[in-house]
Amino acid sequence: VQLQESGPGLVKPSDTLSLECTISSTTTNIKNYYWNWIRQPPGKGLEWLGAIGPSGEAHYNPALASRISILRGTANNHFTLQLTAVIPRDTAKYYCTLGLWDWGQGTQVLVSS
């Protein structure tokens, strides 16, 4: 399984951050897993942001629920993260994961004017 995140490296405060994740697998039925977004701010631990479940239901970290949206793409191996009204504390490396064990390499996001 391979996961690849993509998105802007720099976002201005109050803007919307949009990230994409593409999942590639020749052997795993990826639809049976939760597709997660996780981030790690500089010098801090991992923070789970949210996920799309096998039935397409979305689950969000309550601390971010008012600003976050995770959607599955029409290609069924692609999902997105949108985080509105970003602030400097949203600066982090953002990862997409398939379940608990398969992770992308992460994409660095800096929130700065």
Task: Give a structural overview.
The protein has 113 residues and is mainly β. 0% of the residues lie in helices and 49% in strands. It has no helices and eleven strands. Strands 2, 4, 5, 6, 9, 10 and 11 form a seven-stranded mixed β-sheet that branches. Strand 9 (92-98) and strand 10 (102-103) form a beta hairpin. The protein is globular and about 45 Å long. 26% of the residues are buried.
Which key features would you list for this structure?
0% helix, globular, 49% strand, single chain, 113 residues, mainly beta, 4-stranded antiparallel sheet
Structure at a glance:
By secondary structure, this protein is mostly beta strands. The chain has strands at 2-6, 10-11, 17-24, 35-40, 47-52, 58-60, 68-72, 78-83, 92-98, 102-103, 107-111.
The beta-strand count equals 11
Question: Which regions contain 5 or more consecutive residues with pLDDT less than 50?
Answer: none
**Biggest beta sheet summary:** 7 strands, mixed
Helix content: under 10%
Taking all Cα atoms into account, the compactness measure Rg is 13 Å
SSE order, one letter for each helix or strand: EEEEEEEEEEE
Q: Which structural class fits the helix and strand makeup?
A: mainly beta
